[in-house]
Amino acid sequence: MGLFSDLYPGTLADRFIRNLPGVASFTIKNPCVPGPAPNCGSTVMPIQPGVAGGIFQAASASNAALRSGFNNGATLASLTSTLGGLTPPVAFGAPNFSSVDSNINNPKYLEWNLKIEKAFGSKTAVSVNYVGNHGYDELILNQNMNAYCLAPCPFGSVTATSAPDPRFSVVNELKNAGWSNYNGVTASLVRRFSAGFQGSFNYTYSHSLDTISNGGLLPYSLSADGDSFLTQIDPNNLRKLNYGNSDYDFRQMISANYVYQLPFKSSNRGLDYVIGGWSVSGTVFYRTGQPFSVYDSTGATTYLGNASSGIVLADYLGGPRTCASAPNCLDPSASNFVASGSQTNFGNLPRNQFRGPGYFNSDFSVQKDIKLTERFVFTLGANAFNVFNHPNFANPDADISNATSTFGQSQSTVVPPNSPYGNFQGAAVSGRVLQVDLKFRF
Question: What is the pTM of this model?
Answer without folding.
Answer: 0.85
